[in-house]
C-alpha cells in the first residue's frame, strides 16, 4: 500500500497500538503528539488520512480539525476522530468540525483497521471519479468543437446539391460529401460513448495510413473549398504512410488543421495536404496560401483559447480551440505538432506520429 496516515495522539500507549497495527498493514505513517505539530507536519507532507485524538493539550482535536479543513491542501483529507466520548452531542460536534468518522477508545485493532481501509477506499474512488469527470468534461468540449465542422460541411453540401439540379454527377459528389460528414459525426459520437478520450491515452491504438486519411479529409472538405473557390489538393505518395495511432482521433486532428486552413485562406487561394516519412515518424502537413501568423504571435500557438490577429476570410466562426485540440489528441498518441511559416508567405501546420511496421495494416480506413 502507498497511502500515508497521520496519527495525532498525546498518549504513547495509543500511538504504539496504532503504529503497530497500521504499520503491519503496509501503510506509511506520520506521528504527531498534539494539534500544533499535526498542522506543522501537514504543511510539509499531505497525508491520505488523519487519525485525530479529541482530548489533547493545547488546541483540542475539534479545533485542529477545523484548521485542517481551512487549509487547501488538507480540506478534503478524511479525518477520523479517536475519542472515549461517546455521547451523541460529542459525536455531532465531531462531524460538525469536519470529521468523517470516529473510533471509540479503547481502540480495537480490527475495527480501527477496517474503518481506515473503508475511508481510504472511498477517498480513492472520489479521486478517480473526479479525474473521470474532468476527462469527460474536457472531451465534451472537444466533441462540441469538432462537431461544428461536419455540420457546417453538410449545410454547404446541401446548398451545392441544390444548385446541381440536372447534373447527376455533381449531385453524387455532394451526396458523398454529406455521407462523409455524417460518418465523421458518428465517429466523434462513438469515441465519446466508448470513453475513448484523448486525455486518457491511446496505448492500445493500432495503425493508421495517414495518406489515406489525408485523402478522406480532403474529400470531406471539398464543398467548403469549392464554396470559397480554394484549390484543395493532396500530394500523391508511392508507398503507405502507416503510423501508430487511433485513426478516429487522427482524423479529428487533421480535420481541424484543414478546417483552419480553409477558414484563413482567402478565395482563389490554395490548401495542400501532404504526408512523408521523417526518420521513424510519419508527418502529415497542411500548407496554405493564407496570411500566415505574425512572428510576435507564434509563441503558444497551440494554447486553448488563443486568438490571433488574422481572421477567417469569409466570416466563419473561430473560437481559438482547434489547435489546442489537435495538440491534445496527437500528444496522447505519442506524437507532436508544429507549424512553419515560409518566407514567401502562408503557413504549414503539421503533426507527426510514430511510424508503424510496414507489415501492420491500418485498423480503420476513413471513408
TrEMBL record:
Q: Which residues carry this modification: 4-aspartylphosphate?
A: 53
Keywords on record: DNA-binding, Kinase, Phosphoprotein, Transcription, Transcription regulation, Transferase, Two-component regulatory system
Q: Which GO terms describe its molecular function?
A: DNA binding; phosphorelay sensor kinase activity
Q: Is Acetylation a UniProt keyword of this protein?
A: no
Top enzyme class of this protein?
transferase
| RNA-binding found in the keyword field | no
The record's EC number reads 2.7.13.3
The molecule here is called histidine kinase
Originating organism: Opitutus terrae (strain DSM 11246 / JCM 15787 / PB90-1)
